[in-house]
């Protein structure tokens, strides 16, 4: 392991991380703290006040570029769902599902399991877009709060499915290569850890939700879908015209065709091996086609103008949701590649980014044995996930696991443990901007979703670490 020298930049970044986490736990806004952190890091990196101030704007631009695809897919899905709600097509689409989802408990586990299965094949981001808009109204109708649906999609998709990644195998390949192990050994070792982590976190979250599900009687007419709230403000300048009532037969036709189109997307993803951004783009393009078709059918000659109005409403919603997230993401992106792109070589030679350097330093100050190694792998994996990308630090996790492994049997377990910790924290269950897709689809605050996930994920990581110690 290369000996990395920590400089003031590392300590300042770590101090602001601790401060931001403390503020998030207290449910306070972190925008000003993040901006202060960016300015402080910019001042240390450039040693000029102008460079520090410039760094704030440039970091916002960098974060926006990184998040742009997510902003667009959410905005387009919202625009499509908006026209489906106004025309009544959405109501017809979800009616058959009520036969199988009749209780809030069934809604929580049903949405979660469906999300997990779809995410295993196509990753969570496309899965959220595929199932969220359709299943959310069903879940709310039977008494599951929107935050409960968001938690289920988040924990099962971005947590269980992504941390195992048994179909696409992106995560285990990265960690296994870094640890010098066969991919299959890491995958096999991860199975009990993923199962334990998934069961503990989802059961804990469900237990915490049960009182809310029993006491709050959600009614469909009382529930404002996020797509509706995006455009029903009295001051909305681009309010679409009232939608003429579509014939029942036409609504039923669209209600049948729309799920078939998304099912065709799933087939095409499998046949063409589309993953990640490509799969999301396919979903987004399909949503645009559906939006145009339904708008033309509903509005006739004014369909073109109304399509534009729906898109405007969708993008207004998307940027409204992402507005408070961009400053936070901008700060945490400085922990990875952004620091060298925005500021000229501020880190010492041999550095791999602030977050990865901190992970290496953490691994270097603890004794090397199985118990301490397991705890260190969990903490290191979690730290590397703080930049909001669970995949950015798992190569580091693999290399550190190889160092801590005292035996051949321990190496795969430690590697898998670090992988699980990094992806559960950074892949989209705790970092607010990483879990925005599920939060936006369900119309809940990403910060509230992160807060609700905090206890289940921490308890899950604790139990999983203990299990890993016994497996070593």
Helix content: over 70%
Which of globular, elongated, flat, extended, rod-shaped describes the shape? globular
> Total strand count, please?
0
Q: Which radius of gyration do the C-alpha atoms yield? A: 23 Å
Number of self-contained structural domains: 1
* Biggest pleated-sheet summary: none
Q: Describe the oligomeric state of these chains in a short phrase.
A: single chain
Q: What structural category arises from helix and sheet content?
A: mainly alpha
Counting H and I runs of at least 4 residues, what is the number of helices? 21
Overall pLDDT level: 81
Note poorly predicted spans: 218-222, 227-240
Strand content: under 5%
User: Could you give the distance between the termini?
Assistant: 22 Å
Order of helices and strands: HHHHHHHHHHHHHHHHHHHHH
